[in-house]
Amino acid sequence: MALSSVTATAVLTLVGCGVLILHLVQRQTGTVGLLVGLGLAMVPLPFVLGGLAWLNLTARVPLRHTVFCLAWGACAATTVAILANNWTASYLTRHQGPLGELLGAGIATPVIEESAKATALLVLLLPLGRRLRCRGRRTGRPCAPLLHRSPAPRRPRPYPRREVGPHARDRLRLRPYLRPLPYLRPAPPSGGTPHRRSRPRTLAAGVVLGGMTACGFAFTENALYLGRAFTSDQRQRLDSIGLGDPPSLRDFDSTVQTFVLRALLSPFAHPLFTALTGIGLAVALTTGRRRLARLAAPAGLLLAMVLHGTWNAAADLGTHGFLVVYAALMVPCFVALVCFAAWARARSARHRPRGGRRPAPHPAGGGG
User: pTM of the prediction?
Assistant: First the structure.
């Protein structure tokens, strides 16, 4: 058996963050509210995961990477976001008053949450990974005292530092120091274009990684807000019973409104935001143009923050203002994302060889 120390550290970190986030949510919602929030937050989860799994047929991101992104968004990113948002909100409210609340919801919260979600994509690209190999089967002795670090074989650089050709300077210098992922590699130059370009697979991989991270984040956030709403409605219901009023379904209006807003109207909101970050990072890693490679990732993250901030600000505009922003901004962005996914899927299927097999490599001699 081979156990990666980096994988073990990541698993322990995510488990610790998961326990901490459950404790934080339970303190704000109560045990019953936590269970109700988790149950209601799972309703939109199959639809979002199903859409990302369909797009992953094009991206072909390994299952371990998608599970890592999902767990990071549900545990680590939400833990950082809750702690940082609470501290930022209290600081801005204490120094700016009512204006601080608007600044926190429209600027600070999108920056914190999108940065926390984007960290998952950067962690996947870190060149970490030392194998701890157990040779107990060969020697017959116990494996525990024989765990040691074995030097990993040196792999050739996918992007050499020095290249021969007029377009050698278009290569981004940071790429040789990143982890080479098979689904984030540029297509070779073809036709009359001397530059390497981003393939539909690489762009789809950015959407899948960002969407999986945001899906886990949205699940935990929905559980928090739905649990809060249920706990508040439950207290009001107990107060109405104490006053002699008969209980009715109107006692849970807040829970119903929160469920409709977050689970029915905007289940793809967070995946849409972080998908922009994933696309920007995929373009930065695969394009052959130096300026585009430098600006793509920051531009994608900035667009995600701006769209997230606009969505948060729309909640303070009332029902009519929210519906206007929803129809004028969110619906077109979602339709554009769906069209992109369909284009990437069709483009990948068009260039895939028949029978699902890759073409055999040409012999080294090349004679014939």
Answer: 0.80
- DSSP secondary structure code for residue 128 in this structure: -
pLDDT number for residue 247: 54
The tokens describing 194, both together, are 């001397």
CA dihedral 290, 61, 130, 20 (to 10 degrees): 100
* Burial group, residue 320, by CB count within 10 angstroms (0-12, 13-18, 19+): exposed
Angle of CA points 207, 212, 217, to nearest 5°: 125
DSSP 327: I
Cα–Cα distance between 133 and 154 in angstroms, integer? 17
Per-residue pLDDT of 51-61, as tens digits, reads 999 999 988 99
- Check residue 90 and give its pLDDT: 87
Give dist(CA 31, CA 214) in Å, integer: 25
Rounded distance between C-alpha atoms, residue 150 and residue 133, angstroms = 7
Q: Evaluate whether 359 touches 353 at the Cβ level (below 8 Å).
A: yes
CB atoms within 10 A of CB 321: 13
Amino acid at 52: L
- If one compares 104 and 218, the residue with the highest pLDDT of the two is 218
Picking from 317, 1, 282, the residue whose alpha carbon sits closest to that of residue 134 is: 1
Quick one: tokens of 242? 């104490």
